[in-house]
Structures are given as C-alpha cells and as structure tokens.
Amino acid sequence: MKLWGGRFTKETNQLVHNFNASLSFDQKFYDQDIRGSIAHVTMLAKQGILTDTERDEIIAGLKGILADIENGTLAFDAESEDIHSFVEAHLIERIGDTGKKLHTGRSRNDQVALDMKLYTRDEIVELNQLLKTLMEELYKIISTNTETFMPGFTHLQKAQPVSLSHHLSAYFEMFKRDRSRLCDIYERMNYCPLGSGALAGTTYPLDRAYTASLLDFAGPTLNSMDSVSDRDYIIELLSALSTVMMHLSRFCEEIIIWNTNEYRFVDIDDAYSTGSSIMPQKKNPDIAELIRGKTGRVYGALISILTTMKGLPLAYNKDMQEDKEFTFDAIDTVKGCIALFTGMLSTMKFNNEVMEASAKNGFTNATDAADYLVNHGVPFRDAHGIIGQLVLTCIDKDCSLDELPLSEYQAICPAFGEDIYEAISMKTCVEKRNTIGAPGVQAMKEVIECYREYLDTPNVCDTKQN
After folding, report:
1. pTM for the complete prediction?
2. Phi and psi (nearest 5°) for 300?
3. Same domain, 132 and 80
4. For residue 315, is the peptide bond before it cis, meaning its omega torsion is within 30 degrees of 0?
5. How many Å from the N-terminal Cα to the C-terminal Cα in the chain?
6. Secondary structure class of 191 (helix, strand, coil)
7. 448 and 374 in one domain?
8. Cα separation of 37 and 84, whole Å?
C-alpha cells in the first residue's frame, strides 16, 4: 500500500520503487512507529478529532500488529514502501475504514522524524549502560592496582613511573566524557516533532504538548520546518560515537603493544584471541585489532551524514532517507565493540612484575634522581647533565639506576648518598606524587572514591532505562 497516489496516473516503475523504498532498513522502527501512532491517536481522541471508540479500536489493532511482528507471525513484505505504510496497510486490513483515520493530522515527514528520534533516544540509553558496565570493569582494576608500578610513556618512550591504576584511570576519564556527551545529546534532542506535518503544521487542533508528554519528551519542537529537517542529533551522536571508538582504539593499541613478546605486560584470554593457520605458536589479539579497525567504519558514518546534510534547503528532502543505514550500522558496531572490549578487559591478566621491571630498566626514575640532587643543593641544569652521564654508564654496564653501585654515582657527583636508592625506588617515585590527579597512592584513593560516587549516581540516561 502507498500512502499517496491520487494525482498519479501510472504505476511506479519497479526499479524506482526499489530505489525509493526504505522498508528493508526502516523496519527497525516498527516498535517506535507503533508507539508514536498510539500516542498520536490518544491525543486525537483527547482533542475530539477521533472518538474514544475509534481510538481504542486503532490502538488494539496497532498492539496486535506489534505482537505479531515480535512473535514472528507477521513478516515484512516487499510491497510496502516503508514501515509507516506497512503498519497502516495492515491496520486497515485488520480493522477496516477506522484504520484510515490513523494518519489524521500528521505527515510521513514528522512521523519519520519522530521514529528516528525515538530510536536514537532508545539507543543512547543502551550505549550509556554499556559504557557504564565497561567502566565498572575498569574500576575493579583501578581500585586494586594503586601499587602496581609500570612505565608511563611519551613518544612511545619510557618516561616516568606510574601505577597501573593511574594509567587506566586516564581511560576512565575518557569514558566519563563519552557518557556525558551521550546525556547532553539525549537532553538536547528530547523534543517531539510529531504534529509538525509535512513542514507547516496542520489545521487540526492538535495538542502537541500532550503528545510529547505521552512519549516522555520534554516538550514539542517549536518550528515545524526545523522539526522535519533536523538531523543535528544524528550528527552529534555519530560524532560522540566516533570519539568513543577513538578512545577504544587507543586502548586497543596499547593492549596490542602490551601483548607483544617484547612487552609481555598483559596476557589476553584465549576466549578473546585467535591463532594462525600456519604458525602454531601464534596467539593473536584479533578482537583488539578489529575494534581498532572498525573505528574507521564509524568515522565514515559521520562523514556520510555531514556530506548528506551540507547542501539541503529547508525543509524535508528525500536525501535524508540516507541518514538511517549508516547510523544503524554505526550504533550496532559501537555497541558490539564496547561489549567485546569489556569482556576482553575483564578476562585479561596483567603481569605486574614484568611491568615494574620495565619501568626500572627504562630509567623512568631518572627525573627523580635529578630531583634528589636538586634537594642536595645541585642546580637542576647541572643535575640534569649528571643524571644523563649516569644513564650512559648504566647503558654501558647493562644495568638500571637501581642496580648501579654507589661508587659509580659518587664518581660522577659526590652529593649522592646511600639514600639515593630509596629516593629512586619505583614505590617512592610514584607515591611522592600526591597532588590530585597524580599517580601517588593517596591521590589515587581520592580519585577512586570519586569514581565510586560517580558510578553510583544515576545520570539522565540511567533514569530512562527500562
């Protein structure tokens, strides 16, 4: 069934129908479309545009269609142009002429705008929860590894010692921002376009605020032309999801490096690894690599919607139908990546002794050795040069600063005493950095308390979860 055709004298060319039709992908909206229709007819009856009997008959028919789709007895057919015509055709087939009143006071333009908003809103709630679950796993590792020492890096070169807690809390902060962005989008997009008509509203006395309240929106949109042509929230969501994927990709890159034989910082569980068809010794970090690779796929969706929207005049244009497939794909991709990453992280083993040895052998305590000299009256620039000479000595002797004899220290600078070894131990180097945001144990305990409070406090998306 077509929702149009009165002014046409010829049937649509089959290729044109296939090219124009969207049911193959917008069937995802069946729940949102039916929810929106139930709210719409409820409002129409409240306004006296439909009788209560007509309302009840339509709602019963819509609920029956929903149940039959979900139990598999009603299949989507290729004849319908989109989900809207599919639902309306089956409603009329089931309840007769009363079903033809469903579309009173609305257009497919505001109907699809509503469906996309409802769908996006539902998905944001799910994405928020997936990120929270990931952060709970991160929290477990952060809260139990404040004294697990490892090298911190700049330029992929070992720089200064940190704790595993501190390193991973950087990702906790990233995911906090990701959840915040999702909640911002939810609140900004949460206005109902239904009742905007094709672009100029309708002559029917609709109560748009009532419809909005039935669908848990903050209120109705305030410009009908913008209502049917707004896809900003999709652009924002795909931007936010691209950032999520960028964060996951950075994390995966580190895990891939840490998993190498050269680093051996982590062991990825067999359940999240694969082997080689030719090399029996191989255990590959394929899940981490795939997540890293799928980041580009989500970026592509963002570029696609930006390109689609960049030249569109007001109001609705058919180009906007192109907003769906790549948005659906990006959402599904990100949800899958978060879930798999969470499983991989929760089963991953950290090799604490290897990480600490790497920090020592990478001279990450060199800055602290220079600070030791400064505290003994040596100007910092001179101290910097002295420690550089000591590092060269260690390289020549294939040892760490911790292993270099005191006589070697004093041969270069007599200011060194026995207490140098305590001053440059990994534990001292980390623990004396206790300003908030630093890796010291006390500072990290304060941060961990903040994280627990954060996870225990529902955000706006948590409160919308069913």
Report:
1. 0.92
2. -60, -35
3. no
4. yes
5. 34
6. strand
7. yes
8. 10
Residue 412 CB-half CA count within 13 A: 21
Kindly state whether residue 230 falls inside one of the protein's structural domains: yes
Q: Which of 19, 17, 24 is nearest to 2 (CA)?
A: 17
Among 404, 376, 379, 377, CA closest to 390: 404
Say which of 37, 229, 249, 276 is annotated catalytic: 276
Q: What is the share, in percent, of the chain residues with pLDDT greater than 90?
A: 90
Report yes or no: 206 and 195 within 8 Å, Cβ to Cβ. yes
Beta carbons within 10 angstroms of residue 417's beta carbon: 13
Q: How big is the CA angle at 136 (ends 217 and 259), to the nearest 5 degrees? A: 125
Q: Name residue 162's beta-bridge partners.
A: 150
Q: Residues 210-245, buried b or exposed e (16+ Cβ, 10 A)?
A: bbbbbbebeebbeebbbbbbbbebbbbbbbbbbbbb
The residue among 356, 380, 395 that closes a domain is 356
Q: At residue 74, what is the residue type?
A: L
Q: Is 155 a catalytic residue?
A: yes
Residues 344, 404: one domain?
Answer: no
Amino acid letter at 211? T
pLDDT per position as a tens digit, 140-167:
999 999 999 999 999 999 999 999 999 9
Q: How far apart are CA 22 and CA 16, in angstroms?
A: 12
Domain boundary among 318, 338, 356: 356
How far, in Å, CA of 239 to CA of 299, rounded? 8
Which token pair is 196? 């905007």
Q: Are residues 165 and 272 in the same domain?
A: yes
In terms of domains, do 306 and 416 share one? no
Residues 29 and 166 in one domain: no
Q: Is 376 a catalytic residue?
A: no
Are the CB atoms for 73 and 111 separated by under 8 Å? Answer: no
Give 399-427 pLDDT, tens digit per residue.
Answer: 999 999 999 999 999 999 999 999 999 99
- What total number of domains does the chain contain? 3
DSSP notation for 100-115? GGTTTT--HHHHHHHH
SS3 for 334-371 is HHHHHHHHHHHHHHCEECHHHHHHHHHHCCCCHHHHHH
Which one of 17, 24, 155, 227 is the catalytic residue?
155
CATH number at residue 94: 1.10.275.10
Domain that holds residue 328: 109-199+222-356
Comparing C-alpha atoms, which of 391, 413, 410, 414 is closest to residue 402?
A: 391
CA distances from 135 to 54, 139, 291 (A): 49, 6, 17
Q: What's the confidence (pLDDT) of residue 8? A: 43
d(CA 153, CA 359): 10
Compute the distance between CA of residue 286 and CA of residue 292 in angstroms, rounded to an integer.
10
